[in-house]
Amino acid sequence: MIFEHEIPKGSRLYFGKAAKAKRELENKISEILDKEGFEEIVTPNFSYSQHQSIENDRKLIKFSDEKNEQVSLRADSTLDVVRIITKRLGRTTSHKKWFYVQPIFTYPSTEDYQIGCEWIDHDNIVDILNLTGELLKNIGINPILQLSNINIPKLVANELDIDVDLFKNGEIAKLLELNIPWLEELIKVKDVQDLEKCIDNVPVNIKAELEKLLKSAKEVSYNNLVIAPLYHGSLKYYDDVYYRVIQDNYVICKGGQYSSEGISSLGFAFYTDSLLKILED
After folding, report:
1. How is 155-182 classified by DSSP, letter by letter?
2. Domain spanning 16-280: which CATH class is it, in words?
3. Which of 11, 199, 255, 275 is 20–30 Å from 183 (CA)?
């Protein structure tokens, strides 16, 4: 039996101090992004193309429109922002820097608020990393920024003829059982010095991507940086150097480089609810 005052599991309700804290956080980050030249966009809650963003499309809340085309609630903002700017608004604006404050929805009834930005047709990952660091500083926290390169676990899996799911699932024990010295070195990498020590020991076809990761790490002006070359995230569109921000078992932010509509771009999303929990603590 469902009582009329109940809300679905996973949905969000803010009131009193929580609602005020959410508004103040969103305003603070929005003001910084505005000063950095980002303009705001609010995309539709409904989309025809969310399956291209999400690794597991069973997480999508799907239904059919009046033409029997599949529609889903927005489960990710990134690719929709790029498509709308480049395809729908391309004739009316040439602006490349956009931010949004809006929720995403996943099956069965989960909603999560995000504050994110997309820097279209820009490929210097260090710029978006340093912007993320500046935002964290202004919020007043110093969490771990974990830097990775999605191509490295893919190349390692191909080199060793193993399933890339070992990296996706973080099955370190099974990787160590392979007893491969250079792989064990990569598993242990945590910082710039670790990566520099092992980079010459890996197969040639993996070295270039490790060097790209190393170059980005050296140029980031953030003091709580961790390098995880073998990490494999769950979003489908990141195709180069990317990152996540973590504190107290909360993922605060994800961001990185991706390609959409033939354009290389950068973006990130802060997870509002995780940030609020950390700031409250």
Report:
1. HHHHHHT--THHHHTT-HHHHHTT--HH
2. alpha beta
3. 255
pTM of the full predicted structure? 0.91
What confidence score (pLDDT) does residue 1 get?
Answer: 55
Chain segment 109-167, per-residue pLDDT in tens: 999 999 999 999 999 999 999 999 999 999 999 999 999 999 999 999 999 999 999 99
Whether residue 270 contacts residue 116, with contact meaning beta carbons closer than 8 Å, is answered with yes
For residue 2, what pLDDT is reported?
Answer: 62
The DSSP line for 181-199 is HHHHHHHH--SHHHHHHHG
> Alpha-carbon dihedral of residues 234, 58, 119, 122, nearest 10 degrees?
60
Burial classification of residue 168, based on how many CB atoms lie within 10 Å of its CB (0-12 exposed, 13-18 middle, 19 or more buried)? middle
Q: Residues 144, 224: contact at Cβ < 8 Å? A: yes
Query: Contact 51/57 with Cβ under 8 angstroms?
Result: yes
Give the residue among 112, 128, 111 at the shortest CA–CA distance from 120: 128
**Phi, psi for residue 220 in degrees, rounded to 5:** -80, 130
- Which runs of E-coded beta strand occur in the chain? 39-40, 46-47, 62-64, 70-73, 97-106, 110-119, 144-149, 225-227, 238-247, 250-260, 263-271
Instruction: Delimit the domains of the chain by residue range.
Output: 16-280
Q: For CA atoms 270, 274, 277, 281, give the dihedral sign.
A: negative
For residue 139, give the H/E element and its range. Answer: helix 125-139
On the 0-12 / 13-18 / 19+ scale of CB atoms within 10 A, 173 is: exposed
Residue 108 preceded by cis peptide, ω within 30: yes
